[in-house]
Amino acid sequence: MKRVYVNEEWCLGCHLCEYNCAFANSGLKYMASLKGKKIFPRIHVEEGDRVTFAVSCRHCSDPICVKSCIAGAISKRDGVVVVDRTKCVGCQTCILVCPYGALVPGEDGTMTKCELCLDNASGAPACVAGCPNRAIVYEERE
Amino acid sequence: MKRYVIIGNGTAAVGCIEGIRSVDRDGEICVISDEPYHVYSRPLISYYLEGKTDRERMKYRPDDFYRKNGCKTYFGRRAVSVDTENNRVGLDNGDWLPYDSLCCAAGSSPFIPPFEGLDSVVNKFSFMTLSDALAVEKAVTKEKRVLIVGAGLIGLKCAEGLCGRAKSVTVCDLAGSVLSSILDEECASLMQKRLEENGIEFMLADTAASFDGNFATMKSGKTVEFDVLILAVGVRANTKLLSDAGIDVNRGIIVDEKMRTSADGVFAAGDCAEGYDSSLGARRVLAILPNAYMQGHTAGVNMAGGDEAFDNAIPMNSIGFFGLHAMTAGAYDGELYEEKDEDSIKRLYVKDGFLKGFMLVGRDERAGIYTSLIRDRVPLGEVDIREMKKIASNTIFSSEKRRKRFGGVV
After folding, report:
1. Which chain B residues have a beta carbon less than 8 Å from that of A101?
2. Which fold has domain A1-56+118-142?
3. Measured at the alpha carbon of residue B114, what is the angle toward residues B111 and B119, in degrees to the nearest 5?
4. Searching chain B, which residue's CA lies closest to the CA of residue A62?
């Protein structure tokens, strides 16, 4: 299955992926509308000592978030781990168990995560399309 | 064709069904439950009272779950005996269900201490099931004063759920602090403060000793008047069905890492089972939802002839009240590293070169990274410990380790 991968030696730490993600999932018409607002990206850039890289859901083969969700709101559909935000009550058990830190609360407190932009207007990962250094790729690796 | 019987219809049962079906598409699965409901998310009953969910959204799996998984359901029926000689389960209507393998996922029941005068209380409830929640919903109105006995996870979630529905909510507990099974006193006081700010009253280090109608007399001698009483003192694993059948039980039904009990072909999972806690290094009942699912799944796979071991169970809880979240995992054992300010506390426990446990209150952190260090027993020699203490982050790993973890081959 195709997944989002990050080549950390090429990552500039520019955070554009976060903006592209937040915009793709916002339903807004213009990206400029995000200006001045708190954004809720489902990918995040981590910055360590001389290293930066973006992190998003790995769509694990045996996802512990799915097994741990107290509401039965997280499931795996055609290889993609998805959240039914109408069922989520925001207990954050998924944050407690995800080994990658890939789930974050959205604006309403229910959980969000990378769903590969398959269900939004972007149709394919917006973080990948917008990465200026091609540090984020969307490809088959197994 | 193999015949599977599951006693119970909660999270562990669903895990078991999905575990069986990951190996065997054809065998017949019978699910027995005395609750007359499609499987629902039990921990959501407090959110139901709060109005954050409803009966439809509480369904833990879609409506077609049993049909799609080829399950025959016996809901509203109680399993009354297990006959391990003849491999069959007796039902309350006198029927017998034969099995090739059986999973007991019977959960737990509220523990009600023998309070003097409890019979004189008309409006008293436990808070474990959807039926409890529906009864409480009916009994509690804006004019009612609610007394909750027990400041643990169940009692406090109930308090939060009822806060906007009742005239007042008072919680009492013999323990001197809230959530004493998972938080130390300092962490607990942050949670208590948030609950109090939202109108919940506490009587701690003091609990109900006896009842007389609408009055509770406390250990301290104080009297509390109430209209609705919720008993959330504790729970006990439902072990009787299997202990009566001669199967080994302790506090829970004793299981190994494959969820096998002492009887051939009989498995147990979830809140009724006592499995190995790898952070404690001993067996214990781990009555938490993720554990129930994982034990159930492991039982199911092994029942169907597959091979799965669940050997890294640890306690882990994420619980929030009025927007303040506490996350805890593992054992609070070893050298303590802490960070705190007025509104948040982080405590990490390190022993023998491993992260053993943590408590986080009011910390916006990716706690699962810490949890994975405990569950996967990652030697701390492989991570940047200074960075780890600061924040839960993927930067604590080396580039190579990170590449492996993220599944990339670069």
Report:
1. 366, 368-369, 392-394
2. Alpha-Beta Plaits (3.30.70)
3. 105
4. B294
CATH class name, domain A60-113: alpha beta
- Quote the minimal CA–CA distance from B251 to chain A in Å: 24
Q: Say yes or no to pLDDT of B407 above 60.
A: yes
Contacts of B323 in chain A (CB under 8 A): 109
* Set of chain B residues whose Cβ sits within 8 Å of the Cβ of A93: 289-290, 318
Candidate from A67, A93, A141 with C-beta closest to B297: A67
* B15 vs A contacts (CB less than 8 Å): 67
**3-state percent breakdown (helix, strand, coil) of chain A, nearest 5:** 20, 25, 60
B400's enclosing H/E stretch is helix B399-405
CB B48 within 8 A of CB B161: yes
**Residue of B63, B60, B58, B39 whose CA lies nearest to B48:** B58
Q: Do A1-56+118-142 and A60-113 fold alike per CATH?
A: yes
| B371 lies within 8 A of chain A by CB | yes
Map out the domains of chain A as residue ranges.
Answer: 1-56+118-142, 60-113
Residue of A nearest to B321 (CA): A91
By the 8 A CB rule, do A105 and A92 touch?
yes
Nearest neighbour of B57 by CB, restricted to A86, A90, A109: A86
Distance CA B154, CA B233 (A): 9
Kindly provide the ipTM of the predicted complex, given to two decimals: 0.97
> pLDDT digit string (tens) for B46-90?
999 999 999 999 999 999 999 999 999 999 999 999 999 999 999
Share of chain B above pLDDT 70, in %: 99
Distance from CA of B349 to the nearest CA of A (A): 16
Going residue by residue through chain A (142 aa), what tens digit of pLDDT does each one get? 899 999 999 999 999 999 999 999 998 999 999 999 999 999 999 999 889 999 999 999 999 999 999 999 999 999 999 999 999 999 999 999 999 999 999 999 999 999 999 989 889 999 999 999 999 999 988 7
